[in-house]
Every structure is written in structure tokens, then in C-alpha cells.
Design a protein that fits this description.
The complex is a heterodimer of chains A (343) and B (571). Helix content of chain A is 69%, strand content 1%. The N terminus and C terminus of chain A are likely disordered. Chain A is mainly alpha-helical and 343 residues long. In chain A, β1 and β2 form a beta hairpin. In chain A, strands 1-2 form a two-stranded antiparallel sheet. In chain A, α8 packs across α10. Chain B is built from 21 helices and 20 strands. Chain B is globular and about 75 Å long. Chain B has 571 residues and is an alpha/beta fold. The chains are: A mainly alpha (343), B alpha/beta (571). The interface between A and B is large, with 48 and 52 residues.
Chain lengths: 343, 571
């Protein structure tokens, strides 16, 4: 009479590793969407591996201009000892590009973590408590939105470090300026979710039971409101790289002696282009483009896969019409179990 | 059958053959779970002037079948078999041909009239839209705006909208819910189709309005010979309107018979169970044989004196009185049934008792605490004495917590037990609501609706409250599941002995559980009394109308009631 047994049978849970954000998305993707996700994942992991193993990969240090054989020749074309050539200052381009990945990762991690923490807390409190606090925070967030983000970042960089400084000083300055720009985004998303969830019966039922506001916020709203965060994280990471590169390009980056920074190198390469020296600009630029493309592909794919209306599916067995590509039903089954458990 | 499609005079030449012939229909959906067979093998015929009801619980495939008739299935669906409307196979015809068939040969009436109408166009425009869309096709003459409007006025008059010449220019929000459904029906009738598919046409409406719409559909059939396919889960509606009934279960037709035969002697086990589960007004009443109010010796837990609850109006408009001068008491161990239609204030009263709404006037004492100036801090210790069961079991559990965590939450907040104690108590409660103890580790989406509502009951009862507020606890459930939950509810109430405020729009359900029943109408308590008295000998006109409107699941009895109550309903 009731359909209870079938429901029980369907709801086996997958092991935890299959329920991780990216893994579960991979399992339920098909066709072009899977291709995009895989491309993004490859580019992103290449970027991360380069950053982690930079000391092993790079033949020289990021600020090295000489070795046992003496000083490097400036503006040397790619090939020989210097795989991608050298810059006007005598730095090895390949080493600078590799070390630059490390700087980028550090900035992303610091910036995104800071903005997530602050943005989520402010969003939860503002959305749940509401009233004048909410109004003030929303006005501030809107005001930050109204500025061009690079302008805010420049102002912050000047305020924090006077423009340029050491490795950690530079990274923190860049990260904090990016944080200021990103907090309103996280704040907005979490606040909107909180306001929606506040009216849900399960929050009301917690109120009826006598749960305190802090308990409702942390136990009931927090977990439900933060489900879209992996997505914003990947999309913001690529934006953080662009902001960092923009800061470096405009001269608010990190000194070449304290860390390698792609945007800074691009700036220095400007003068080279007219004299036909292409390698100092192309390789850092390529590094920025590939990293941003990789992160964006991952983010966009996750976005599409999270939405059942945008997600491609293997079509039903007997038919001749319908979207998606044909495939085995066992894969569809696997995709389903990932879906059931991830939701 | 005519081949000269598109001329109006052919509409009545259809004559002998069936209007709709579904032959071995199968519908498959591609989902993340692989293929879902929504409709497995359905064959049925609808003759001219016949009302065929397709009944079944959620997931039985009845709505998918209805949508197939109109060719409204989503892209992910694949259908095979044949759906013949006047000789055209809806499944295989081209998109432009399908557009011609829709509206002219078959039209649809949707469940929710407020979303089926576009709020930014007048109803006249929306009715005329269908008329003009079909004009100028296949040799038919073009229709001028003026003529289309005249026909829209005609259609509105047919469905009993008063003063159609003026109201044709009204926007949907200027109509009440029942009138909106009349407008939707008028739009369906505009091209005089031979067949109307009505998908749960009265589910979103109050019971008194439902009676009017059912009457209207019956008149349409009698006067214009329109065939109706009625999709519903409500056996009372079936008994009231249908000539023939098709029972569906999990995508298959289980039984097909004329309404009278089906209700009198169902053949299949599923049909028998389904019919047995339908609550029938006047049977199985909780107050059967009682002559005076029970439990009056006990302490009074809830006392409302001239209780008023207002919602502030928008700038310039007066406040809305949701509850207006209501008096009642609820004593220890008693089950008080609160009945009313939407907007009657019944849910507002329940929420006010639980401290979710503020009262604005009069006095409401809950466990001797005056709710008029509610302070959360002083009321909190009393919360452990109050349990609350919400209407929608799916939404009232945090999807991120296990059922066990959800049930134990009140215990953890109020008594701070050790994890082992909490688990032990949760197990006991799950057992008393007849769920396996292992379900404590599951997540809410892994349970069915009925199981979730039992878990919800377990959560409300874990602190052994003196008072339980149940706000429409069974209205989101299928009828067979509802019957089981009601039975469980009754048993547990007898066992635990808590007082209960049972809120529902369904008189029959309230009668099964409640000793004492109060009827709310527009925020006022118009009548209260013993369940069997209120149901059997209603005093107030509104109660009479309410009871007269409720269709009983028995065609013969319902026909008698319809005649007997015609006077009341007409008033």
C-alpha cells in the first residue's frame, strides 16, 4: 500500500569519499559537462602541484640572478640553461613562473579563508537577527559593491603596507584587499539563505522546542546555508588571482626580491614587447590565463551539476528523443546514489 | 469521425465513438536514478458526456497520464502506446497539430487556480487568448478582438460568474479562489472542447467552494455533454461526480468499474484498502456515545478569553483580525478539534499557544502563563511541556541532521542528558511510534512521508509534554498513510494521556480524534460542542454548510445528501 520499502532500499549511503564535493560532481556528470569538469580539474591540479613542488621544479630561486658560472645574461632567448629565457633584470623566467604559482596559492588561501569566515558569520547574524543591524550591514556591503573592486584593493594595499613590502607583508596586503572586496559576496549569499531558512518549519520547530538563538544559528541554519560555498570558493579563487595580478601589474604587488608574482613580471615585460622580446610577457600571462580558466571551469561545472535543470543526464532506455547522450544505466545508477547522498 | 478538422459545426458530429482512447500507454522518465516507469500500461476510454475519475495516491502516475493527454510531458519523458483524441494520436502528432488539438478538442483545468492565471492580464484577455490562437487556422475564420471578448463573456456566464460584462475586464487578483477556478474552467470551455481534463481541480480549494465547483462541473456535463477526466485523490469527490472510476497504483490500472459498483463491492485488495482508509463523516467518531464533555475534572491547560490576534496592516490599511474574540478551554487529557477553512484563524491560534505568534488582545493562558505579553526567557521553561507537530513532515526536519538527532533535540536542550541516555530515550520513542530503532541513524529524506510524520510525533513527545498542538498533521499525507498515522495518534494519546489541540480543515479527520470540536469561521468561534453533536446536529448555519459540502465516499449516500443539502448550499 505505501511505498515505504522501496524508499528504504534506495537510500543506501555511499562511502564518505564519494560524497566529497568534487568527487560527487564528477560521478554525476556526463558528456560535455564531464569534459569541462575534467579539463578544469587537470588545469587546477597542475597549478596546485606546481605551487607545492615549486622548490623541486624551479631550477633557480625566484630572485636568483647568478649561479656558480657567474651572472645570468639579461634578456636571453628561451633555450639552453634558461628554459624560458631571462628577463631584463636577469631573472630566470621559468623559475619566476613556477614560484609565482606558490604566491598565488598563498594569496588565494589567505584571502578566501578570511572572507569566508567573516562573510559567513556576518551573513548569519545579520540575516537571523535582522532589524537595524541587518540594515546597516547591508548598506555597508552595498557601498563596497559600488566601488570598482580593483580600486578598493589598491586603496587597501596602500593603507595596509604603504604599497609594497616583504613576502608575507605583500601577501597579506594583497589578501586583505581581496578579502574586503569578497566579504560582501559571501555576506550576501549567506544572508539570503539565512532569511529563507529562518521561515522554514524546521527552524520554527526548533524554536517551539525552546532552542536558543545561537543554537538555531549554529546547528540548524549554518549547515544548510553554507552548501553553496564550494561553488563560490572556486569562482572567487579565479577572481582573486586576477585581482592579485592586477595589483602587481599596477605596481602594488610584491617586490621581486621577496616573492615571484605574475602581475609584477607582466608589468616589467611591458617595455620588452617593443624590442621583440616576447618570452618575458607570454609565459607569466599564460600562467594567469590557464589558472583562471581551470578554476572557472571547475566552478561553472559544479554550478551546472548542482542544478538538476541544467544537469545533463543519460536518457531513458527505449526512447528516441530527449537531451543528453546515451550510456550505460549502471553509471546513471552511480550518479543517482551520489545525488541521494550529497543532498 | 470527421476529417474536416477546425470547423466548429464538427464539434457535435463526433457522435458515437469515444472522445478519448488511451491504449497501452507507457511513460518513462530519465532521472538521476536511471529510468523511472511512471506509467506502465494504461488503457482506458472516455465516452461523450461521461465523467471518468482516475484515482490513486501520490506516485501512482495519475497526473502523468493526464499530462500525456494534453501532450504536456517534460523533455525527459518518453512515452509509447497511443492516446487518441478524435482520431489524432497525441503522442505522435507534430507540434503544430498538437497546438490545434489543445483547447479545441481537449482542455485542462489545473490544480492551483491562482498560479494557472497570469496576474498581469485581465481574465477576459486570457480566455480570449485561446479563442484567437485557434482562429485563422485550418480554414477557420479570424476572430476580431470584439468577438473574442463577447465569447469570453459568454464563457464566464456559463460558469456562473455574476455580471460577466464588467468582470471580464478584472484581473485575477480581484477574484476569490473559487471564482478563479471558475475562470480557469471558463477558459477551458471557451472553444467548447469535447473533453476537459481536470487535474485535482478542487484540492487547493476550501470544502464549501469545492462543493460549488463540483456542482459546476456536473452542470457542464449535463448541459453541454462535455466529457471530463477527473484526476483526484479524494474519494469523496469521486463519489460525488464520477460515472466511472479507474484506480491506479504505481503506474498500473488496478481496477476499473462504474462508481456505484466500485464503492459498493471493490474487487482488488488495493481498492478495498484504499476505500477502508478514507475517513467517513459520522463513522468511527471519538465522541461516540458521549453525552457530556469529558475530562472536565482535570486542570485547565489552555484558556482563551476573548482572544484577539491581529496582523498589522500595510501603511494606510487597517490591521487584519485573524482571530476575533475567541473563547475556549482545553483541559488535561482532552482532545480539542479545531476546524475551519483557510483564513479562519485556526493555525494562528495553534501558533499563538506555542508562542510562535503574539496575541494582541484578550487573554490566552497556556499552563497558567499569560501569553499576552510573552517574554521568551520566562516562557522557555514551559516549552518542555508543549509539543508541536507541523503540517509538512518533510520541511519540519533539518535535512542535515539524522532523525535520531532531531528527535533528541528537545531532550538535549532541556535536560542535558548523556549521549547514551539520549540514544536510549530516542529508541523508546521510535518504538512507541512504531518505527524501527535503526531509523535513528537515517536522514529525513530517507524516510517516507508517513514515517517522517511519525518521527515528528516522536520528537513532540520525547519530553512527555502535557500539551500537544498538532497543526494539520495528516493533510500532506496520502489517505492510506493518513489512516495509519491517525490510528497511531489515537493509540498514543490514550497511552500518554496528553491534552491535544488538533487543528484540521477536514471534518471527518477531526471527528475521528476529537472529543470536543470547535468550528472557526473568519476568526470567530461559531460553534463548539461534542464531536458527534456538532457533526450530527449542527446549530450554526456555517457549520451546516460545512458539513453539507463535505462529500462522503459513497455515491448513493452522496447523491441523497446532495439533494437534501441543496437548500443549505444554495443559501
Amino acid at each position: 500500500m505505501s511505498i515505504e520499502p522501496t524508499i528504504a532500499a534506495e537510500s543506501r549511503r555511499d562511502p564518505w569519499y564519494r560524497r566529497l564535493p568534487v568527487v560527487s560532481h564528477f560521478n554525476k556528470s556526463v558528456g560535455l559537462q564531464r569534459g569541462m569538469l575534467v579539463t578544469g580539474l587537470i588545469l587546477t591540479s597542475l597549478f596546485l602541484l606546481t605551487a607545492i613542488f615549486a622548490p623541486l621544479i624551479a631550477p633557480f630561486g625566484f630572485s636568483q640572478i647568478s649561479d656558480a658560472d657567474g651572472s645570468f645574461t639579461a634578456q636571453q632567448a628561451p633555450g639552453g640553461k634558461h628554459l624560458l629565457g631571462t628577463t631584463v633584470g636577469g631573472y630566470d623566467v621559468f623559475s619566476r613562473v613556477v614560484w609565482g604559482a606558490q604566491t598565488a596559492v598563498m594569496v588565494i588561501i589567505v584571502a578566501v579563508i578570511m572572507s569566508i569566515f567573516i562573510g559567513v558569520i556576518l551573513g548569519l547574524v545579520s540575516g537571523y537577527i535582522g532589524g537595524w543591524l541587518d540594515r546597516i550591514l547591508v548598506v555597508i556591503a552595498d557601498a563596497v559593491y559600488a566601488f570598482p573592486s580593483l580600486l578598493v584593493a589598491i586603496v587597501m594595499a596602500i593603507v595596509i603596507s604603504g604599497g609594497r613590502s616583504s613576502l608575507w607583508g605583500g601577501i597579506l596586503a594583497a589578501a586583505i584587499s581581496i578579502t574586503v572586496v569578497f566579504i560582501p559576496q559571501y555576506f550576501r549569499v549567506i544572508r539570503a539563505e539565512t532569511i529563507r531558512l529562518k521561515a522554514e518549519p524546521f527552524v520554527e520547530s526548533a524554536k517551539v522546542v525552546g532552542a536558543s538563538n545561537i543554537r538555531i544559528m549554529t546547528r540548524h541554519i549554518y549547515k544548510n546555508a553554507t552548501r553553496t560555498l564550494p561553488l563560490i570558493f572556486t569562482l572567487n579563487a579565479s577572481e582573486a588571482i586576477l585581482t592579485l595580478a592586477g595589483l602587481g601589474f599596477l605596481g602594488f604587488g610584491i617586490e621581486p626580491t621577496s616573492a615571484a608574482e605574475w602581475g609584477f613580471d607582466l608589468n616589467k615585460a611591458l617595455a620588452d614587447t617593443t624590442s621583440g622580446i616576447w618570452w618575458t610577457g607570454v609565459f607569466p600571462g599564460l600562467a594567469i590565463v590557464l589558472t583562471v580558466v581551470g578554476l572557472t571551469l571547475v566552478g561553472e561545472s559544479i554550478n551546472d551539476l548542482n542544478d538538476p535543470r541544467l544537469r545533463g543526464r543519460k536518457k531513458a532506455a527505449s526512447g528516441k528523443s530527449g537531451p543528453g547522450t546515451a550510456g550505460s544505466s549502471s553509471a546513471a545508477q552511480a550518479a543517482h546514489s551520489a545525488e541521494v547522498s550529497s543532498s | 469521425m470527421s476529417t474536416n478538422i477546425g470547423s466548429v459545426s464538427d464539434q457535435h458530429a463526433r457522435g458515437a465513438g469515444p472522445v478519448l482512447d488511451i491504449d497501452h500507454l507507457r511513460v518513462t522518465f530519465a532521472t538521476d536514478a536511471g529510468d523511472v516507469y511512471a506509467v506502465k500500461d494504461v488503457s482506458l476510454e472516455v465516452n461523450p458526456g461521461e465523467v471518468v475519475a482516475i484515482v490513486g495516491e501520490s506516485g501512482s502516475g495519475k497526473t502523468v497520464t493526464a499530462k500525456t493527454i494534453l501532450g504536456l510531458l517534460p523533455e525527459t519523458a518518453i512515452s509509447s502506446g497511443a492516446v487518441l483524441i478524435n482520431g489524432n494520436n497525441v503522442i505522435s502528432v507534430s507540434a503544430s497539430k498538437l497546438r490545434e488539438i489543445r483547447g479545441r478538442d481537449v482542455a485542462m483545468v489545473f490544480q492551483e487556480p491562482s498560479t494557472a492565471l497570469n496576474p498581469v492580464f485581465t481574465v477576459g484577455w486570457q480566455i480570449a487568448e485561446g479563442i484567437r490562437a485557434h482562429a485563422g487556422h485550418g480554414g477557420a475564420a479570424r476572430v476580431s478582438a470584439k468577438e473574442a471578448k463577447a465569447r469570453a463573456i459568454d464563457a464566464l456566464r456559463k460558469v456562473g460568474i455574476p455580471d460577466p460584462e464588467t468582470r471580464v475586464n478584472y484581473y485575477p487578483h480581484q477574484f476569490s479562489g473559487g471564482q478563479k477556478q471558475r475562470v480557469v474552467i471558463a477558459a477551458a470551455l471557451a472553444l467548447n472542447p469535447g473533453l476537459i481534463v481536470a487535474d485535482e481541480p478542487t484540492t487547493a480549494l476550501d470544502v464549501t467552494v469545492q462543493a460549488e465547483i463540483l456542482e459546476l462541473l456536473r452542470e457542464l456535463r449535463d448541459q453541454y455533454g462535455t466529457s471530463i477526466v477527473l484526476i483526484t485523490h479524494n474519494m469523496g469527490v469521486v463519489a460525488d461526480l464520477a460515472d466511472r472510476v479507474v484506480v491506479m497504483y504505481q503506474g498500473d490500472v488496478v481496477e476499473e468499474a462504474s462508481a456505484r459498483v466500485l464503492f459498493a463491492e471493490p474487487k482488488q485488495d488495493y481498492t478495498k484498502k484504499l476505500l477502508a482508509a478514507v475517513p467517513h463523516l459520522g463513522r468511527n467518531s471519538a465522541s461516540e456515545g458521549m453525552t457530556e464533555r469529558a475530562h472536565q475534572g482535570g486542570k485547565v491547560l489552555v484558556e482563551a478569553k476573548n482572544l484577539t490576534i491581529e496582523y498589522p496592516g500595510r501603511l494606510g490599511s487597517p490591521a487584519f483580525k485573524a482571530v476575533d474574540g475567541v473563547n475556549f478551554t482545553l483541559s488535561e487529557g482532552e482532545v480539542f478539534g479545531l476546524v475551519g477553512e483557510s483564513g479562519s484563524g485556526k493555525t494562528t491560534i495553534g501558533r499563538a499557544i506555542a508562542g510562535l505568534n503574539r496575541t494582541t488582545g484578550g487573554s490566552l493562558k497556556v499552563l497558567d502563563y499569560e501569553m499576552l505579553n510573552l517574554k521568551e526567557r520566562t516562557f522557555k521553561p514551559l516549552r518542555k511541556q508543549i509539543g508541536f507537530v507541523f503540517q509538512d513532515p518533510a520541511a519540519s526536519f533539518n535535512p542535515q541532521l539524522t532523525i535520531g538527532d532531531c528527535i533528541a533535540e528537545p531532550l538535549i536542550i532541556h535536560t542535558k542528558p548523556t549521549p547514551a541516555q539520549a540514544r536510549q530515550r530516542t529508541r523508546e520513542l521510535l518504538e512507541s511510534v512504531q518505527l524501527p530503532a535503526a531509523y535513528a541513524d537515517r536522514y529525513p529524506h530517507e524516510l517516507s512521508g508517513g514515517q517522517r510524520q511519525r518521527a515528528s510525533l516522536a520528537r513532540a513527545l520525547i519530553l512527555n509534554p502535557k500539551l500537544l498542538i498538532a497543526d494539520e498533521p495528516t493533510s500532506a499525507l496520502d489517505v492510506s498513510v493518513q489512516a495509519k498515522v491517525l490510528e497511531l495518534f489515537k493509540e498514543i494519546q490514550a497511552e500518554f494521556g496528553f491534552a491535544c489541540l488538533f487543528i484540521s480543515h477536514d471534518l471527518a479527520v477531526v471527528d475521528i480524534l476529537s472529543h470536543w470540536v470547535g468550528v472557526l469561521y473568519k476568526g470567530k468561534m461559531v460553534e463548539q460542542g461534542l464531536g458527534n453533536q456538532v457533526m450530527g446536529h449542527p446549530q450554526h448555519d456555517y457549520t451546516k454548510k460545512l458539513i453539507a459540502s463535505l462529500p462522503v465516499p459513497d455515491p448513493d449516500e452522496q447523491a441523497r445528501r446532495r439533494e437534501a443539502f441543496r437548500a443549505v448550499l444554495g443559501a
